[in-house]
Design a protein that fits this description.
By secondary structure, the chain is of the alpha/beta class. It contains five helices and seven strands; from the N terminus they run αβαβαββααβββ. The protein has helices at about 50-60, 80-85, 100-110, 150-155, 155-170; strands at about 70, 90-95, 120, 140-145, 175-180, 195-200, 200-209. A seven-stranded mixed sheet has the order 3-2-1-4-5-7-6, covered by helices on one side. Strand 2 (about 90-95), helix 3 (about 100-110) and strand 3 form a beta-alpha-beta unit. The longest helix has 14 residues, at about 100-110. The radius of gyration is 15 Å and the shape is globular.
């Protein structure tokens, strides 16, 4: 089954387009697809979470990944959502607005053969009304790993996005937010409930509802 695509108009900044997909190594770290390669152009604007950080995050999440609906808000390569499927997530929704990058996500879904469990939404993640009703009542595992500049240049939109999803999410949902040192996790809902760890230059916050 081919990944479902919704072509939505977007106002998010465009990414560089001069890179050749597949030029840089990226792989699934654990689970059923451990060691399988993913396509990644090497475009620094995409900036997938580093392998060591992704491994640390999934070690922290542990069995909480299983049977969740993974939501990869700024999918890039799709590595976070696909890693979650590899480790037992029931399904994943991957949202990416840049068409060439979204094609790479689609290729990665196809390569792993998870089209029945992974849905690609091509659109602006900030327009939550266009995709949130796809998530359903299964507890969510939300990954928010945008360009770090968004936490400065689009701070209010980021706070509204994360806060709105926390409020709407089913019980037992888990949120993973990646930023850098410039972002203050105390601005998010339930600030005392975030577990924040540093993997320079990344800062990871995990919230369990």
């Amino acid at each position: 089954m081919a990944p479902r695509r919704s072509r939505l108009r977007s106002s998010q900044p465009s990414r560089a387009r001069s890179h050749d997909p597949g030029a840089v190594g990226l792989r699934i770290i654990g689970g059923a697809f451990r060691g399988r390669k993913l396509r990644y152009s090497g475009d620094p604007a995409v900036r997938p979470m580093k392998d060591r950080v992704r491994e640390a995050v999934f070690n922290l999440l542990g069995p909480a990944v299983r049977d969740k609906h993974a939501v990869d808000l700024f999918a890039g390569t799709g590595a976070l959502g696909l890693e979650a499927i590899s480790r037992g997530a029931a399904k994943a929704t991957l949202i990416e607005q840049h068409l060439p990058t979204a094609r790479v996500v689609a290729e990665n879904i196809k390569t792993l053969g998870v089209g029945a469990r992974a849905e690609l939404v091509v659109g602006n993640v900030f327009f939550t009304a266009l995709w949130r009703d796809r998530l359903g009542l299964t507890p969510w595992l939300v990954f928010c790993s945008p360009p770090y500049a968004f936490y400065q240049d689009r701070r209010q939109e980021m706070l509204e996005l994360i806060g709105g999803l926390i409020a709407a999410s089913p019980a037992q949902s888990v949120f993973v937010v990646e930023s850098d040192e410039r972002f203050d996790f105390a601005l998010l809902p339930h600030p005392d409930s975030w577990s924040v760890r540093r993997y320079p230059p990344a800062v990871i916050g995990i919230y369990r509802k």
